[in-house]
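anyone else get weird line breaks when pasting these?? whatever heres mine. first is seq + C-alpha cells for prot A
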Amino acid sequence: MSIDDFEGNDIVQNAGKKLCIALQSEDKFVRKLALKEFAESLKPMDHNELHRLFKEVHIYLLNTLRDRSEPVREQAIQTLQLYILEKLPINDYYISYLFPIFIERIGSVEIVEESEEIRLQLLHLIHGIIDKYSEGSQLKAFLNDLVIILKETVKDKYPAIKEMSCKCIILLSKYLPRDFHMQAESLVKPVLGNFSHQRYKIRIDAIQCMEVIVLASSCKALEEVAGPMAERLFDQIPAVRRTVARVAARWLLEYRDRYSFFYKLLPLLLTGLNDEVPETRAEAHTLWLQVGLQYQRENEKDFKDELDFLTQLPKHYPKDLERPNLGCRVLVQRTIGKLTSALARELSSWQADVRVRCSQLLCAVAHHAEDGITQHLQELLVAMYATARDEDERVVVNIVRASQLIGTFVPVDTWKKLILPAIEDGAHYGHLTVLANLIRGAPQDLVCSELREISQLLVDPNVCQSRKARYQKELINCVNSIEDKYSDELSGDIGSLLFRIVATVFSIRDKENDEVLDERMFQRLSDVLKLDNVDDLWKIFLEDLLKSLNGDPKGWTEVTVDRCILETILAYSNASFGQHLGVIGAILVDALDLSVEPEARLRTFIALTEALDKKDVIFKNAINLQIFLETLITDAIKPTLVWHAGRTAEAMRTMATSCLCTALSPAINVDLFTKELLQTLSQQIIPLLLSLTEDGAYRSRHLSLEALVLLKNMMVVKEIWGIDDLIKIYPEILKRLDDPISGVRICSVESISILLEDIPEEFKGDTFKSHHEFIIDTLMIHFDDDEMEFQELIKGVFKVLVKFCKQIVEEKVLKHKPLIRNQDGCDEIIKYIQQIEL
C-alpha cells in the first residue's frame, strides 16, 4: 500500500469515526456541528474516498433524518444534498438507502415528519435525485417508492410542498415516460384534490401536473379528470383558465385515444375562444388552430374534396368573422350532438360562472358548427330562451352573439318554425331577445321574405301588449332588427304592422322605458320606410291603427291598451288627426260615455284637451270638421257637463269644462264653427255653463266663466250675439263676485268686462236702464274690496259702462261715494267721465 493510500484511508477513517462518535452525543448542537464539519470534510475527497466513507457512515448519517431535533434534521438534509447530489457519482447503490427513510418520514398516510420545512427540504432532495438520475435506467427501480411518496406529499397542507410534489411528478413523467404510465393513474385522485385549492398557483401546478398524468394513463383517468378540468374553466383567475386551455390543447394533439374523447376535450379549449380576457382568447385561438390543422392533416384523405374545391367563403359569411380552418369545423361538427346536449343542460345551471362559460362555449360551437347545428336547434333554443333572461349581463351578451351566429348559418325557415310557435304559445322577453338576434344575424336576401310573417305574429295583442319593461325593450329590439333587414321590395303591409307595434309599445311603455322608448321609434321607422317625416308615417298608417282598436270603448278602463293607443293618436297624429275625424269622433263619443270608468274618461279628456290645443295643426287639412265638432261637443262633452252627485262626477265636470274651453278657443288659420252650428251649440251649452257657475268645484266655476266669454266672442264674430244671450248670462257672472275663491272672483270681473264689450245696440237704450243700474249697484258693492287688484278690475268695468250709460255711472258713483272707503277710486271714475265729456 502506498503512502497516498494510507493517508487516504486515514482521512476516511478519521472523518467517519469523528462523525459517528459526535452523532451519539446528547447535545443537539454537537450533532449539528458534526454534520457541518462532516460536510466540509467531503469537499477535498475523490469519488473513491467518498464511496468508502459512505459505507462507513451511511447508517449513522441517515439516522440523523430521524433525529428528535429539527435543526439537526435540517442540517442532515443539507449534508445529504451535498454528498448525494454533488459529490457522489450516479449509482443506485447510494439512493437505495435513502428511499426507505423518505417513505418512512413523508410517504406514509400519517406523515411522521412534523416539520413543514423539513418535509419541503426532503422533497427538494428527492427532486434533485430525480433530476440527477435523469437518464432513468437506475431511477426506474425507485419509481414505485417515488409514487408512494408523491401521492402523500401532493396532499400536504403546506402549499410549497404541493408545488414541489407537482414538479417532481412532472419530472418523473419526463425522465421515465415508458414506466411512468404504469403508476400514473394512482396519482390522479391525490392531484385532483388540489384543483380547488385556494391559492391559484397551486391550482395551476395541479393542472400542469395532471397534463402529464393523463397522457401517461388509461382512458379511465381522462374520464375522471374531464369534469374537474371543466370546473376550472369557471375559475376567476385568467392564468388558471389559460392553463386549462394549454393542457386541453396538448391532450387534443397528443393523447393516444383522443378521437374517442373529443367531445370531452373540445369544451376545455373552445370556451377560451370567447374568454373575457384578450390574452386568453388569443392563446386559445392559436392552440385551437394547431389542433384543427393536425386533425386536418391526419384525415387529409377524407377532406380532399373540401380542400380542393371549397376554397371560397360561403356567400353569406359575415365579413367581420374569421372562418375557422376545416379541421376545426369538422371536429366540432362531428361532436355537435354531445356538445349541444350538455350545453342545453348546463345553461340553466344555478351557478353563475357555469352559465357564463357555457354561453361562451355556445358561441364557439355555433361559429364552428355552422349549419351543422340545425338538427340540434330545438333543444338548444329552449335553453337559450331561458338563459337570455339571465341576471348576469355577461351571459346575455353571449346568448345574443350565439343567436346572431345561428341566424347566420341556419336556414331562416328552420329557426322560424321553431321560435314563432314558442312565442305564440306564451312569450317572455327571452324569446324576443333570441328572435331579434336571429333576425339580425340572418342574411337580408334570405330573411326578407319571412319578415311579414314575423311582424304579423309580433303585432298580435297577446304578444305586443305587455307592460313589462324588459319585454317592451326586447320587442322594440325585434322591430329594430326587422327594420335593419327591410327592403324597398317588401310590401307596405309590413310598414303598417311595424307601426302598430311601435304605437302600441309607445302607448303602454313602462315608466322605466320613458327615456328609451320615445318618439325616436317613430322617426327611425319613418327613415327606414324612406318617408319625409313622421307626419307622413301617421298619414299613411293611422287608418290601419284606428281599425285595430277592437272592442267597445264603453268598456275601456284606464289601463286598456286600446284606450292608451287612442291617447297616443290624439297626442301625436297631428295633421293626420283631421283626416280621420269621423272615426276618431265616433270613438271619442263612446270613450267619454258616462258609463265608462271615470279614470279612463279623465285620461281621455286630458289627451283630447291637449290635442285641441293644437287646432292649427290637427285641423289643417280636416275633413268634415263641423260635423266632428258638433258630435264632440254635443255627444261627448255635453253629457258630462250635466250635474251629477259625487266627487267623481264633480272632477269629470271640471275636466269636461276645460276640454270645452279648449274646443271653443279660436284657431289662427282654421274657421271652426259655421254660424248655424255655433247658434245651435250655444243654445245647448249656455244653460249648462250657467249652471256650472255655481258648481261645487271652484275650478269648474272658473272654467265655466271662461267658456262663456269664449262663446260670446265667437258669437259676436258670427253676428249672432243677441240681447237675450246677454241678459241671460251677465247676472250669473255678477253672482260670482261673491265667490269665496279669489281666482273665481277676479275671473268674474274680467268676464263681465269682456261681456259688456260689443253689446247689442238695443241694450244701450233707456229700456234696459234697470239692468244698467243693477250692474252698477252690484259693482259698487264690491268696489270697496280689500284687494287692490280687485278694485282696479272693478274700476275697469266702470270705464266700460261709461261708454253706454255714462250718466247713470256718474250718478251712482256720487251717490255711493260718501258710503264707501274707496274715495280715490270714485274720484278717478268721476275724473274719467269728465275727461270724456271734454
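and prot B, same format (seq, then C-alpha cells)
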Amino acid sequence: MESSIANLLLGKIVSILENEVALFSGVRHEINEIKLELTTMGSFLEDADRRRVHSKTGSAWISSVRDMVFEVEDIIDEFTYHVNKQKQLGFFPKVIRYPGNLLLRRKVAVKLRDINQRIKSIAERNQRYGGANQIEGAYMNFGGTSLNYDPNWLRNFSESSLFLKDDDLVGIEKAQKKLLGWLLHEEPRRTIVSVVGMGGLGKTTLVANTFNKHIVKQHFDCCAWITVSQQYGIQLILKSMIKEVYKKANEQIPENLSSMSYRDLVETLVEILQTKRYLIVLDDVWHINFWHDISVALPTNIIGSRILLTTRMEDIASFEFDVINYVLPLSPLTDEASRNLFCKKAFASKQAQCPPYLDPLARKLVAKCEGLPLAIVALGGLMSSKRSLAEWNEIYSNLNWELSENDKFERLKYISLLSYHDLSYRLKQCFLYCCIFPEDYLIKRRRLIRLWMAEGFVEPIKDSTPELVAERYLMELICRGLLQVVTRNESGRPKRCKMHDVLRELALSISKAENFVAISDVEDCGIRRLSIKAKEHGIKAGKGIGKLRSLLVFTVDDISQSSFNRLPSGFKLLNVLDLEDTPIDELPGELVNLFNLRYLNLTRTKVKELPKSIGKLFNLQSLIAEETQIKELPPGIVKLKNLRHLIAYRYSVDYLEFEYALGISVPSNICSLERLQLLSIVEASDNLIKQLSRMTQLKSFHILKVREADEENLCASIGNMRLLRYLMVMSCNEDEILKMDALEVAPPLLEKLLLAGKLGKVPRWFNSLHSLTYLYLHWSRLREDFLPHIQALPNLGTLKLINAYEGERLCFLEGFQKLKILMIWKFPHLKEIVINQGMMPGLEKLDIRNCQEFMTLLHGWESELPDLKGVYLEDVSSKIMQQFCAAANVDYQPTIQATEASIVEVEESKFEWHYKFWL
C-alpha cells in the first residue's frame, strides 16, 4: 500500500525536475542521476502496488523507498522555496551567482549525492536478501496477473451515472413497517426508538428513508436530523438543532444564535419544542453521555413526540431513556435481498440483470458478504468493472482464500479493502484523502475536486481540464460504493458526498501507516497532511510542522477569533490551507511567504481584506472567499498567473430584494489571468468591461453593477466565452435597464443563467439556450409574455422567477417537457396560472410566494401534473388557499391573530403541501 503513495510523489518530483530545471543549475549532475533512479523506481513501485505486495521484506523495502522519496521532496521544496525567495527580492535571474545561493546549491548537492548513494544501497540490500523476488511473487492469489482496467468503460459509466438516481432500497420493508408503527402510533407520551446494529448494516439508510417519508413529515409539527458521531461538540449540536427546528417551523432563526451559551441554547429549544409534536433523529450515537447532555433540551411533552437514534452500541440501545422505549435490532439482508442489491450495483448498465454465465459466481460472491449492505455495494461496485469470467474467478478465489474468519466486521473491512486495491494509484490517493474530513462530514463536490488538484493527485490529460479529470475520479469512487452521494444538483451531478464511517476507519488506518493523513495535533512527526478540530488554543506548532504540506481546520464549538490570527513560522512549505468556518478576522502576515500554496479557503471567515503582497503566492490555483467581509481585491492579485478559481462574494439579508448578492471590486487587469476558469462575483468597471474580451477561457462568470452603456462590450465578450457554463449578470440598480440584446447567440455549453435587473424585452438569444438546465430571472419586471421564448428549451429543469413579470396571467401552453422545479415569487399583479394538457409532465415542485393577487386555481392540475410531489404557498390570497385546501381535503382555518402565521402541512398519497398565510 505504501507503494502507491511513494509512486505519486515520484511523479511529482520528476515533473518538478523536468519543468524547473533552470532553478537547479549547479546541481544538474545529481539531479539527472536521481531522476533516472526515481523514474525506474516509480515503474517498479507501480508494479508492486498492482500486485498487492504484503510480504515483510517487500513492505520494508517499499517503506524505505517511500521515506526516501519524502526526503527528496523535502530537499527540492526547500531549495525551490529559497530560490523563489531570492527571486522575490530581485536577485533573479542572477540567482546562480548570488553568494547565498552558491552555498545553498552546495548543501543541496551534498544532500542529493547522499540520497543517490542511499537509494543504491537500498537496491543492493534488497537484491541481497531477495526482496525483489518476493515482490515479483507476491500476488495475493490473483494468479500472477494484474486486474484488467478498461478506461473507456470507466469514463462512459462514470459520466452516465451523473444522471442516475441512488440505488433503490432493498430488504428494509419489514424493518421500516415496524419503525413507522412506533413513530406514528397514537401514544401521547414521548417515545424513544433505537435502531442498533454493526457498521455497514444500513441503519442510517433505513432511518433517513423513513424520516423523509411524507406521511412522517405530515404527522409531526417539526422534524430535525442531527448527526452526532464519536466526537461531538454539544453546543454546536444544539445550534444545529435550533436551526433545523426553526427552519422546519418556518420561523426566524434567532439573530444571537452564535453567541448563545449552553443554557440559552437549551432554553431556546425547550421553548419552541414544548408545544409541538416533534421528531428528532440522533444519528450515530456512541456514548450514553451524549444523552445526558442533550435530553434536558428535549421536553417530555404528552402530544406524541418521538426521538429516533441509531447506534452500534447495544448498551446505548438498551438504556432506560424514557417511559417508553423501543429497540429495533437491524439484521443482515436475506439472500434474495442481498442478490438484488448486488445486481443493482454490478449490472447497472444491464438493468440489474446478471448474465447466465456469471450467475453461479455472482451467488457465491454475494454469499461472502453475509448480508452486509455496505460490503455488497462495495463488492458490486468492484465487479461492475469486470467483464470476463476469468476476472470474476480471480476475485472469488482471492475472497475464498482471505475470508476464513467468521467475524462480519472483519469481512466487511476486507471486502472494502479489496475494492480499494482495485483502484489506480491516483484514485487510491483521492479515496484516502477523503478521511481528512471529520466523521459524517458532508463534502462538497467542487471543494473536493479543487483540493485533489492542489494536492497533485489529478493526472494531466491532453485535451481535458484537471477539473473534468477529477470529476471522473469522483464518479468512479461513487460507482464503486466508496463514497455516498447525499445531495445532487439540477443536472443530477453529486453536490455533496460523505464517507461511510467504516470506510473512513479503513482509510484512516492506511493513511496512518503511510504518513499520508493525520487527524490530530501538529505533534506528529513527518505528517504531510493534517486535519485538526479548532479549539481555544488555535494552531500549535510541533516538531513535525516543517514536513506539513496541507492543513485543514474544522470548528467544533465557539472559539475565540484571536486564536487563529497567526500561523506558526514552520508552515513555509504548505500547499493547502483550508480555514472554512473558522472565526479568523485577520490573515497572518506569514501567509504571503507560503510560496508553495495552491489552495486557500476562507469561506465564512470574518476576514475583511487580503494582504497587499498576495502576489507572492504565484502557485495559487484556488482562492475561495465565499461569504466573507472582503470588498476589494488588492492589485497584486494579477500576479497569480496559475489562478484557476477566484470566488469572493457576500449575500444580503433579504433574498427577495433586488440587491441580494454583493460582489467585490477587482483590478481591471484581472483579465490577464489566462488560466482563470471561474470568476465570481465581480463588480463591473469601465476598464474591466473593455478588457473582458481577453477572458475567452472562462467557464463560470458572475458580474454585478452593469450599466446600459456596457451592453456592446459585455455582450461581445460573453459571445466569445465559448466554454462558459454558468453566467450571472446583474444591473447596477433596480431601475437600470439590463440590456443584453447585442448578444447574438448564447455560449453553446451554457447550463445555468441568472439575469438580475429590469429587462426592457426578452433577449432574442433565449431560444438558443439548448444546454440550459437552470434559468433564474430576478427583478426583470417584464411586460411581455416571456414564456413562449423559453418553452422549447430542451433541457430546462429549473425555472426560478422573482419579480420577473408584471402581467396578470402566466400561460404554459406548450413545451417545458423537462421542467421539474417552478418557483414564482413576488409577482404583484399575478391572478392566474394556466397549464395546458401535457405541459410540464415531470414537474415535482411548485413554489408560489408573495403573490397576493393570485386568485385562480390551476385548472386540472391534479391530473395534469402526475409527478408533482410538493406545493409551497406563502403570502397568497385567502381564496386560493381555500381552493388548494379543498382540493387536498383539508379544513381551512385562517389565523385568529393578525401577527401570527398559519402553517399547515398536508399530505395525500403523492403530494406534500406547505402553506403560510398572513391575515
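btw re prot B: The longest strand covers residues 278-285. Residues 151-167+334-512 form one domain.
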